[in-house]
Design brief:
The chain has 183 residues and is mainly alpha-helical. Helix content is 74%, strand content 0%. The protein is built from 8 helices and no strands. It comes from Dehalococcoides mccartyi (strain ATCC BAA-2266 / KCTC 15142 / 195) (Dehalococcoides ethenogenes (strain 195)). Belongs to the sigma-70 factor family. ECF subfamily.
Amino acid sequence: MDVSGLNEKNLVEKAKTDSSAFGELYELHYARIFGYVLRRTANLYQAQDVTSEVFFKALKGLKSFNWNGTPFSAWLYRIASHEIVNNCRHNSRYSYEISLNGLESIAPVENVLQHERDVEESLDLQSSFLKLPAKYQEIIALRYFEDMEISQIAAITGKSENTVKSLIFRGISCLKELNEKSM
């Protein structure tokens, strides 16, 4: 569900004094923020922890949030980007693992084998993506996983549109290089 800028602004202002309004903001933005964090961390449990922390920090910092024309979601993505970096830096308890146990009993063997190949290719790409410097991960995730426009990414990251375009180009070049090396 998308909220028009004016309605979202009113909801944000209301949420500063009414926790049920923050609940509405949470419902509106949780899925996209969680998806962004999950794609950046490649770990379900870590994504859940980080997303919880994002909304906790948003709730805690909401009174100091100043509406400056940038969507509230941009503020949430900015918090998420910082939390991903902090969490990965300070927390090594998570490991990325895919289990296919039990699939054989519910799908034909050909489907399982195709699924395993798809998962392997996806893991190779994810592995290459996670080796990118954080500045490229953030920009590429916002552009291609979150399907955002250059102007939206610029608002979230605080960078100019030309810098965002340059980071996308360099990030994709690095990703191709890393993916070719892993083959």
